[in-house]
Every structure is written in structure tokens, then in C-alpha cells.
Backbone:
């Protein structure tokens, strides 16, 4: 009898937990629910506008959701429209962080950037933190890490025009356009471009183990490194000539001893 009572108590607790979870996942006040599907999302980003990034490899480390949404939905500012996040038509719902990770991966790739999940070979590690998310505005922060060091951090705000329509198809397309806007805002930022495209220089190590550069035109320049920062590198060749090269426009990689 005691064993049966224990089993019943456990079962009741289980039902309570499941009910609480489901209540927390369901938008109880919205008038309209828009189903978003990351398989249906097709990025409209023009890769020709971002040729400078082509071939770059980003480790999309994580998407961290710190917004005040309830994890499985986000809303319009009035919280009358809820956006339900799915992997596909037949799949279960996705948390905001998971949905955005896979969707932004598609957006970055459409711009010509290679996104890797688990690889030792990449140009930078990117983390995106969502601070606020509605269907009109997203506020987020990004961290860019190179050689295990934080090299870039910035807070962004992306806004879409307010609409009065409740048409589900239009609102779905608008939500996908927000994803494109997130990535184009980042890639169009000159500060981000400089941070990603400039080879990382560890100032603590200065010029140790560096004996030259490889330029984008294929030319190899060797010599004594006399100055190096995030903008330029100056090399004194064996003939005594001092040459200066731009990390962004001219230098493809460094030659290590």
C-alpha cells in the first residue's frame, strides 16, 4: 500500500511539472499565432554585396537568449501576436536560441561566410546575445573571439517598420526579413568588418615567430618585422627596404617561423 501511495505521489508531481511546462510555453493572451519554420526561411541576402567576407569561416559558438520572452515564442509589442518557432512543419517547437542559431547560420552562409559547428579551423568565434526581441525590434550583442581572446564586442539595435496587418503570410515573411536584417547590419558595420578581416595580433607576443606575410595577390614578403598592429605591418627586407602593408586590403596571412 505504501509503495502504491509513493507511486501515485510521484505521478501527481510529474503531471504538475508537465502542466506547468506547457502553460509556460503557450501564449495565453495572443489573438494570432504565426508559425515560423526555419526550413521555409530562404534568405534574400545578396552575396555579391559581401564579397570581402567570402570564404571566411565563423564558429557560431552560441545564441544566448536573455530576452523577456517565454523561450518558445516571441511577440509584437502589444503581445497580441505570438510567433511560434519550428524546425519544420512536422517537428516540435524550438526554443528561441535554437531557432535563431540555425536560421542565422543560413543567413550568414547566404552572404558567403562558412559557418562551422565543431572545427579547429575557423577565422573567428562568434557569440550572439539576445537582449530584447519583438516583431518590430531586436536588440542584441555580439562577441568576436580570436585565438581565445575577445577582440570585438558591440551592441546592435535592428528595427523594422510598424505594420497594422494581421495577415499571417505577410507577418511570416516579415519575421524572416528580420533575420536577414540582423546579419546585414552586422556585416555592413565597418567596425565588425575590420575586426573579422584583420589578422589577429597578440600584442603580448608582439613579433615573435613572425618572419613575413603572404599578400592576397600571392606574393610572399619575408624580412624583419619592425612594426605590427591591427592596421598595418612594416617589414624590413634583406636589402634594407622598409615596406608597409594593410592588414585589411593586402595581407592574407602571416608567415611563422
Residues:
Amino acid at each position: 500500500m505504501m509503495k502504491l501511495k509513493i507511486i501515485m505521489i510521484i505521478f501527481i508531481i510529474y503531471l504538475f511539472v508537465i502542466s506547468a511546462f506547457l502553460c509556460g510555453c503557450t501564449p495565453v493572451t495572443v489573438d494570432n499565432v504565426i508559425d515560423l519554420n526555419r526550413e521555409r526561411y530562404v534568405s534574400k541576402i545578396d552575396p555579391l554585396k559581401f564579397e570581402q567576407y567570402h570564404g571566411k569561416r565563423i564558429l557560431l559558438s552560441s545564441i544566448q537568449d536573455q530576452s523577456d520572452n517565454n523561450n518558445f515564442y516571441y511577440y509584437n509589442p502589444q503581445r497580441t501576436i505570438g510567433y511560434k518557432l519550428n524546425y519544420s512543419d512536422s517537428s516540435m517547437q524550438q526554443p528561441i536560441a535554437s531557432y535563431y542559431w540555425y536560421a542565422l547560420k543560413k543567413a550568414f552562409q547566404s552572404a558567403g561566410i562558412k559557418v562551422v559547428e565543431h572545427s579547429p579551423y575557423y577565422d573567428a568565434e562568434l557569440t550572439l546575445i539576445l537582449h530584447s526581441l519583438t516583431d518590430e525590434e531586436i536588440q542584441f550583442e555580439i562577441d568576436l573571439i580570436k585565438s581565445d581572446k575577445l577582440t570585438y564586442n558591440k551592441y546592435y539595435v535592428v528595427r523594422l517598420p510598424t505594420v497594422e496587418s494581421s495577415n499571417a503570410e505577410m507577418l511570416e515573411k516579415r519575421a524572416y526579413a528580420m533575420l536577414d536584417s540582423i546579419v546585414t547590419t552586422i556585416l555592413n558595420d565597418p567596425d565588425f568588418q575590420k575586426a573579422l578581416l584583420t589578422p589577429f595580433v597578440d600584442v603580448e607576443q608582439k613579433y615573435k615567430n613572425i618572419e613575413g606575410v603572404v599578400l592576397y595577390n600571392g606574393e610572399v614578403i619575408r624580412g624583419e618585422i619592425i612594426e605590427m598592429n591591427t592596421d598595418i605591418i612594416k617589414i624590413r627586407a634583406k636589402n634594407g627596404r622598409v615596406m608597409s602593408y594593410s592588414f585589411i586590403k593586402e595581407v592574407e596571412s602571416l608567415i611563422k617561423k
Notes: The chain has two domains: 26-197, 210-256.
